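Long-time lurker. I teach an intro course on protein structure, and each term I like to show students one example going from raw sequence to a predicted 3D structure in token notation. This year I'd like something fresh instead of my usual example. Would anyone be willing to generate the tokens for the chain below so I can use it in lecture? Attribution to the forum is fine with me.
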Amino acid sequence: MPSERCARDGGHAPAKRHGGVLTLLLGVTLLGCTANAATSIPVLCYHQLNSADNSLVSVTTAQFAQQMDFLVAQGYQTISPDQYVAWLQGNGTTPGLPAKPILITFDDGTLNAGGATPILRARRLNAVMYVVTGYADNPGTWSMNWTQLAALQANGWHIQLHAGPLGHDPVVGGTCQYNYFYGCRKSNETLDEYKARVVRDIDAGIQALASHRLINGSDTFAIPWDYWGQMNGDADVTDWLPSLLVSRFKVVFQQAWGYQAGGYNRRYRFEIHSDTSQAAFEAGLADTRFSLEQPSSSASDGGLFGLSNSLTVLIVFAILLTSALLLVAMVPFISQAHSKLFPSPPKPSTPPDHGQENYQHTPQGHHQGSYQNQPAYDQRDHHMSEYVPDYARPNNQIPSIMQSMHPHPASVIRATRRDSVIYDFASSTHVAMPAQHVLPALPPRAYRSTIIAI
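-- Reply from a regular --
Happy to contribute to a lecture. Here you go:
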């Protein structure tokens, strides 16, 4: 199986990397194991093996072995709590994740649970022990002490927190329907006192595990008795306790009784009892509550199209970079297309002399006329629609030499070496002017005619 024994592999065997290219994205090559995508990871919950009191939460060695054999036959491979958290945060994709991952857990740290070790090792499986630190401090004849827990870890088990010094016991003085330590506020206890008691116990448990070098903190948590106050009717407890657990743990496991889909990092575990048949065990592996489609509020931090955030950022960056490069490459083509669609107007050439004018006045007082060899033009808007032959006044003022002779707003209609004609706007008439009065004041080049006002 190609993903087995990859980095952070959940099995006992020493890690062995399979070299190869994982992903090639814009020149970034990631080496390692295949990043499989899993939409569901079953999580099993056990407590004891062969308990002396035949407890409901105890299974026999034969029963446990049969269940483990079925998992192996179906291609399941165990993973660690870290891999489970990474699966949630990666929204289903995690490097080194087996094709069919499964998480096997035990609660309480009882001595008889250690009997699962040889069964697990023979099948290259592992499990997680959720420890009650108060039991390890005072083990008696029922639970493992710290030395035994360290030996369990050395045999491939992962250690996580189940409760602190008192968290698995009933609360002293409790008057709740269920007097479980974390989910019950005593009648004589203020809300602040209740909060301080719970925080103290959980933080003490985390510190105890770290001080015995079993784990550095705890990413996952199995709440004792599957209870967070849901049956006691104390809204202050049920509103606050889940928020506290979110602040301490990335995953909070619960079984069927206390499970609520979504929110507060809650994830479902399938609790195996002595009366769990093999058929029920096999069917339980397909429970939809294991699905990634019901992620916890904080543990799931998926990115674009279900990819991890880091991969999403890389893909978005690649898209932006590629778009920028394409845009730069297209600039010459865009420029050429713009030139074809919006050609620059041709520069005017010096117009020729139009020869003699032929004006006709309209009833409205305007005139129409034409030059020889040129199309007709219309003077209704009092500006020329044709070039004025030879010369025109560029600064829109009639020559000063003409002002004393024609003191009204006018437009130079014709200014040649032979004669000149202006159009008087006041009288709507054309006035002939001696050429020597107009020509000397005009520059030696042609311009478009405009209204000339004084």
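Some talking points for your students: Residues 95 and 444 are 84 Å apart (CA to CA). The two ends are 99 Å apart (CA to CA).
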